[in-house]
């Protein structure tokens, strides 16, 4: 859609792309559409006047996420079509890719602990399922596939910030599945000419992130715990660092990657803020946001538990490449993202209770 990979003012570039899409709508497939990230992408695309096909088997996603996004979309909800299916089934992938311009592939089994508990199922979904999506996109001749990778591929690398060219040994089966996805993507573009871009997500947070269950992410889990009067748990000393990126910035990265230059394809890109935040610092930010949201909340100090197997001790993204090649620039600081997401976290916690 665009024809320059030179450095540019990303805010202006993304906004101009949004206007361009509104004037020339396309058809998008979002796999994992009932999930946290998938439903946020769907919401944004419908808001831009696009047609969206969603594919999900609801193994980890929720119909409530789709319903919430459709409520926000209003009249645009008529441009959404849901296919209930599993990416492990080639026929479901073929049906979903039919007539689609772009594929944004987010169907997966996330979580390092889950993959350690059950590596076989993680491989079946994340590797075999992704291969099915790539093959279906090839056969349907879609313009481009953007797929979700993960910062977990950096494993035991000691380089900080983490840059795309240097990865370490995987520390979990989940990390191995995401590394395999990247290898298959490169092979598919080289073998079949399918345009693919991988996005290595760091720690994404925001609206519709599930606070419940054994594999809940840290921010919604902490918010839910505090609102329920429970003590938050920190695994380890709390000095471990992460790069927390708000989900709307992840949506931005997906749309830019899908519509960007062909020269940017057959690549992977970090998607984070490029800032390092320790768990203890994050707890302080969550506490401040909660007190501002509800002054009656009694925020107790966290308790520390042993480090979890497979966790990376230090994580921060070098986003230079994504800025240069995609025009990506995160707009939301952690505090701003928390402020926007807290009402949904609180409502979700109340409904669960």
Model description:
By secondary structure, the protein is of the alpha/beta class. The protein is built from twelve helices and 13 strands. It has helices at residues 10-23, 36-47, 63-73, 90-97, 112-117, 119-140, 173-192, 218-227, 247-259, 279-293, 320-326, 334-352; strands at residues 27-31, 51-56, 80-84, 102-105, 144-150, 196-201, 203-205, 233-235, 241-242, 244-246, 267-271, 277-278, 303-305. The strands form four sheets. It has a seven-stranded parallel β-sheet with strand order 3-2-1-4-5-6-11, with helices on both faces. A two-stranded parallel sheet has the order 7-10. Helix 2 links the parallel strand 1 and strand 2. Helix 6 (119-140) runs parallel beside helix 7 and helix 8 (218-227) crosses helix 10. The model is unreliable at 2-10 (pLDDT under 50).
Short description:
This protein is of the alpha/beta class and 353 residues long. It has helices at 10-23, 36-47, 63-73, 90-97, 112-117, 119-140, 173-192, 218-227, 247-259, 279-293, 320-326, 334-352; strands at residues 27-31, 51-56, 80-84, 102-105, 144-150, 196-201, 203-205, 233-235, 241-242, 244-246, 267-271, 277-278, 303-305. Helix 2 (36-47) runs parallel beside helix 3 (63-73).
CA-to-CA gap between the ends?
A: 47 Å
**Largest sheet composition:** 7 strands, parallel
Q: How do the strands of the widest beta sheet line up side by side?
A: 3-2-1-4-5-6-11
Briefly note the structural class of the backbone.
Answer: alpha/beta
Radius of gyration: 19 Å
- Stretches where pLDDT falls below 50 for ≥5 residues? 2-10
Q: Tell me the total number of β-strands.
A: 13
Task: Give the strand content.
Answer: 15-25%
Round the mean pLDDT to the nearest integer and report it. Answer: 91
- Number of helical runs? 12
- What is the subunit organization of this protein? single chain
Which term fits the overall shape?
globular
Question: H/E series, N to C?
Answer: HEHEHEHEHHEHEEHEEEHEEHEHH
What percent of the residues sit in helical stretches (DSSP H or I)?
A: 40-55%
